[in-house]
Each structure stands twice: as C-alpha cells, then as structure tokens.
Amino acid sequence: MKRTIKDLKNIQDKRVLLRCDFNVPLDKYGDILDATRITASIPTIKYLNDQNCKLIICSHLGRPKGYDKFLSLFPVAVCLMKYFPNKVKFCPKVVGDEVKRDIAKMKSGDILVLENLRFDPREEENDPTFVKELASYADIYVDDAFGVAHRKHASNYGVALKLPNAIGFLIEKELNVFEEAFKNPKKPFVAIFGGAKVKDKLLLIKNIIGKADTVLIGGGMAYTFLLAEGINIGKSIVDLELVDEAKKILKEARGAGMKVVLPVDHVALKYDRVIKTNNLDADMVGLDIGKKTIKLFAEEIKHAGQIVWNGPLGKYEDKRFKMGTFMVAKAVAKSSAYSIVGGGDSVGAINTLGFANKIDHLSTGGGASMKLMEGKTLPAIEVIDTL
Ligand code: AMP
Predict the structure, then answer these.
(1) Which of 203, 217, 240, 304 is close enough to 337 for a disulfide, judged by CB 3.0 to 4.6 Å?
(2) Is 311 in the pocket of ligand 1 (CB under 6 A)?
C-alpha cells in the first residue's frame, strides 16, 4: 500500500511540495472554463493546510514551448484564493532566486503557487538539475497529479525519488476505484470502448478478458474488429496491421465467455452526404454508431452492475456524428450500475450533457486511467514509498 498524506506524521511547520494537475481549460482572456481539476485537489490542499505546513504547489498547464503568458498558473492561484482566503500567494517563477526568497518568507499555514512547470523544458526531460532545485524547496513531497502519473517528469518522478513522499487523496481515490473495479467487479460488468487508437485499446480489451461479462466496441476502433470479422468497412478508419491481433482477441474473449457487441449500423459519409446504413459500401466512411447499435448498447448498459467506459463512439466533435457518444453517455448516466468513466473525450461528453453528478467516478486522468485499465502500473506512483 502506498503511503498517503494521512500517514505523514509531524508535518506541522514543514515545507511540503505538492504536485497537482491543474491543467485546466482557459479561454482567450485567461479565464478558467472548467475548474474540475482544481476542485478535485481541494481536499488534499485543505488537509495539508489544516496540518499547518508551508505548502508549495506546482503544476503544469497546457503544452507551452518556453514562457507563454496565456498558460500562466496565475488564474489557478486566483481560484485557490477563493478557497483559502489570505493564505495563497503566487510566485511568477518556477525556479530561481525569486522562488527561494518567497519560500524563505513563508509562514506555517501559507500556500505558495509556483508558475507553470512546463515553462522550463527540463520538467518533461526529468532533468537532474531541475529535480535537484525543486527538491531543495521542500522537506516532503506529495503527489496528487493523477493526470500525469503515467509520465516520468521531474516534478512527479524525479522529485519523489529525492524526498520523503506520499500520495494525496485524489490519487488515492483513483487507485482504489480502479483496483476495486477490476479485482471485485459488480456483475454484470460491462466495458464500453471507443476512440480511434486501436493499438492502445487492444490492451484494454486484453486486460478485461476474464473480468468483464460484456464488451461494447464502438468508435473508430470498431472498424478494425469488424474487418477482422470479415465485414465490409468501406473507407472507415482501420489499422490493417492489427486486424489479425483483433481476430485473436475476439476469439479469446468469446472463448472466455465474454459477450462482444460490435456495431450493426452506422452513420457514415458518402462523399459529403451523411447517411444511415446497416452496411458500409466501398465509398462510405463510418463515423458514428447507428440507432440499432445505440439500442443494443443501451440494453446492455441498462442491465449492468458495473460500467467502465473509455473513448467516444463516433467522431463526436462533429455534431453530425455525436449522437452515439451522447446517447451512450445518457444511458450510462441513467443506469443504476456503478459507473467509471475515463478518458478525455468520454468525460467531456458526460460534462457537456451535465451528467457528471450521475457518474460514480469520473477519472481526472485520460492516459493514466487507460494505463490502469490496461492493468499497468504508473511510474510516478511506483516511486512513492510503500507502508
Ligand atoms: P482515442 O484518443 O483513441 O480515445 O480517440 C478519440 C478520437 O477518436 C476522437 O477525436 C474521435 O473523433 C475519434 N473517433 C471516434 N470515432 C471515430 C470514427 N468512427 N472515425 C474516425 N475517428 C473517430
């Protein structure tokens, strides 16, 4: 079991470096469009603040190439000021003398938010000089950045190796939810997979064989499976190199007694015309699941005891092809099953529809939650001490 912040003793007056995932969407004026990622770490920040330590918070935001004023963490610090009045200060630097001076001035109970870690290219390189400087700011390191836990960066991997460490409540919850769901699934366990990156998703399906009762496959990835079944897919997205592997997985899954449901109809483009069809001819590109498939999927979802969903069921960014993803989101929200949704697109669909409060666990990390669904460990968690 990983050490959590509750296991940290005598942290009063200590300097604690907390890595958060405050990678929030901003509009062109720098206003936060969705603060979910900030509010998700509030319990951890509050707990550490209640312990009266000196809390130094760091995070990345977006993918800047060097300094970028539009990706400053200042709006995040302002948001935190509302939760912790008169306690939060923003430091406009990531490393250097200004940071050191600000930390030296901190009193117990103060919170200092550093500027975007990725303004320094050494962050993503896990550069030892950057690690050394970050580690020098604190006595203890706490990781609450689930969204980057599958990455080996300086602030979540390198620093953890240098300081006494623990995970925050957000990461603890994410790990517990996925562990429990795959070890002791509530039955029937229905997995829903969509999206376009077949290679990644094949690993998800492999890992749920023997665990899930039913798998519903939609989105771009479904066409590699349909081709593996000898079904015409027209010009739909496909990974030809993985057709044999898909065939093997289907055989293995069915052999293990798992029900596999593939699309039986599609919303497709024929040149620039949108059509609904059961069969894709050579000129068609399948871009969403059709009504019959939605019905089949909804029926399985309705009777599920547990649902795990990753990936959109169509090219949902285009409103002509969003129906499948949105109807499945609705079915999952309506279902009484224990539901876990991971992956940016599926979580986005749930949020857009205003169903977030109907889902038991909306994961804050797309890539990291995928790795857990694949049954893999996360490097940034591996380096946290065990009890
Ligand atoms: P992934 O990152 O693998 O979950 O893939 C997400 C992407 O898959 C989204 O950008 C969707 O637009 C895309 N997608 C879903 N269904 C299809 C489809 N039938 N054809 C092409 N792209 C799709």
Answers:
(1) 304
(2) yes
Which one has a higher pLDDT value, 200 or 14? Answer: 14
At 34 the pLDDT is 83
pLDDT confidence of residue 224: 98
For the CA of 236, the closest atom of ligand 1 is: 20
Beta carbon of 312 within 6 Å of any ligand 1 atom? yes
Catalytic residues: 37, 197, 344, 367
Ligand 1 within 6 A of CB of 185 = no
Residue pair 131/162 in contact (Cβ under 8 Å)? The answer is yes
pLDDT of 344 over the 80 cut: no
SS3 of the chain: helix, strand, coil, percent, to 5:
40, 20, 40
Using the structure block, give the residue that is written with the tokens 């699309």: 263
**Phi, psi (deg, nearest 5) at residue 189:** -95, 115
| Alpha-helix runs per DSSP H in the chain | 36-39, 42-50, 74-83, 97-104, 128-136, 169-183, 198-208, 222-228, 243-255, 291-302, 323-334, 344-352, 366-373, 379-382
Say yes or no: CB of residue 315 within 6 Å of ligand 1: yes
Nearest CA to ligand 1 atom 14: 315
Find, among 367, 364, 341, 14, the residue nearest to 166 by Cα: 14
318 lines ligand 1 (CB under 6 A): no
Ligand 1, residues 192, 237, 326: which to mutate, most atoms within 8 A of Cβ?
A: 237
Whole-prediction pTM value? 0.90
Q: Is 343 exposed, middle or buried (0-12, 13-18, 19+ CB in 10 A)?
A: buried
State mean pLDDT over 57-69. 95
Q: Phi and psi for 286 in degrees, rounded to 5?
A: -75, 125
CB 199 within 8 A of CB 237: no
Q: 């079904």: which residue's tokens? A: 231
